[in-house]
Amino acid sequence: MLDLAQINDIATQAATSVLSRHAVGIHDVTTQEIADHYGKEALEVAIVFSRGTGDRADGDDAADALVAINKALQARQEDRFAFMRFTTEKELEYGDEPEC
């Protein structure tokens, strides 16, 4: 298994390659270990969009980023599935709940 720092690097690179198509910036990526709904080890990857760029991302971008991250992790023999959530710097600043 990869450590969380390695997973953050992989997730950042994969998500950036997808989201940069629409000039969506990534402010931060954090990862934590979780259990999925079957109790199996999984990962939660939280992507924080840079201020003013989150509204450029759509559902297809989110799905493409999720696929890219999971493929990149699998290529490095990481078997845990990565679930994703997205938020913006503004939401973090104001303590709002992420949109998805």
CATH homologous superfamily placement:
K homology (KH) domain
Q: What percent strand?
A: 25-35%
Note the run of SSEs as H and E: HEEHEH
| Helix count, DSSP H or I runs of 4 or more residues | 3
CATH architecture: 2-Layer Sandwich
Cα shape: globular
Helix- and strand-based class? alpha+beta
Poorly predicted tracts of residues: none
How many distinct folded domains?
1
Oligomer: single chain
**How would you state the average pLDDT, rounded?**
90
CATH topology: GMP Synthetase, Chain A, domain 3
Give a verbal description of the structure.
With 100 residues, the chain is an alpha+beta fold. The chain has one domain: GMP Synthetase, Chain A, domain 3 (2-Layer Sandwich), CATH 3.30.300. It is built from three helices and three strands; from the N terminus they run αββαβα. It has helices spanning 4-19, 59-75, 89-94; strands spanning 26-35, 41-49, 81-88. The chain has a three-stranded mixed β-sheet. β1 and β2 form a beta hairpin. α1 packs across α2. The termini are far apart. The mean pLDDT is 90.
Based on the model shown, name its key terms.
three-stranded mixed β-sheet, 27% strand, 3 helices, 3 strands, 100 residues, GMP Synthetase, Chain A, domain 3, 39% helix, alpha+beta
How are the secondary structure elements laid out?
Layout: H1 4-19, E1 26-35, E2 41-49, H2 59-75, E3 81-88, H3 89-94
Parallel strand pairs: 2-3
Antiparallel strand pairs: 1-2
Helix pairs in contact: 1-2
